[in-house]
Structures are given as structure tokens and as C-alpha cells.
Amino acid sequence: MALNIKNPLTERLAQEVAHATGETLTEAVTVALRERLAALRRTAARPELYAEVRQIQAVVRELPDVDVRGLDEILYDNTTGLPR
Asked: Mean pLDDT in each 10-residue stretch from start to end of the chain (84 residues)?
């Protein structure tokens, strides 16, 4: 199946990309479409990723706090008062 682009802006953009990259028009369009499709797939996968991260957060939240020092003691040197 042939692709026939009749939009002047689209044609100009494809030519600019092809010229800048040294690709043919076909290669430039193929790369652009692959990149766009990959981005769409990454976006579509995010709800599952967020759900998985929330599950991990719930597990970590229940872990015991093994370091009972206060934040100042953890972050700052006792002698100088400067950040560790």
C-alpha cells in the first residue's frame, strides 16, 4: 500500500527531517512513526506501572523503621553542624 501525502505542511516537515538526518523521505517518515508509536505504547503502559509502584510503596510503608535517630542527627554532623 502506498502512502500519498497531500498536506503541504506534512510534506515540508518530512523533507526537513529527511534533509537534516540524511535519510530518504520514506526512512524519515518510518522513523518518526516508530518513535511516535513507541511513545504511545509507553503512555498506555503507565497505569499498570503506577499500580505496581503503589503496591511496592504499600509494602515499604509497612517495613519497620530500623534507624531511630532524628532527622537532624542523620543529616548533620554533630561536631560541625554541617550536612554530612
From this structure: 90 97 97 96 85 96 91 92 91
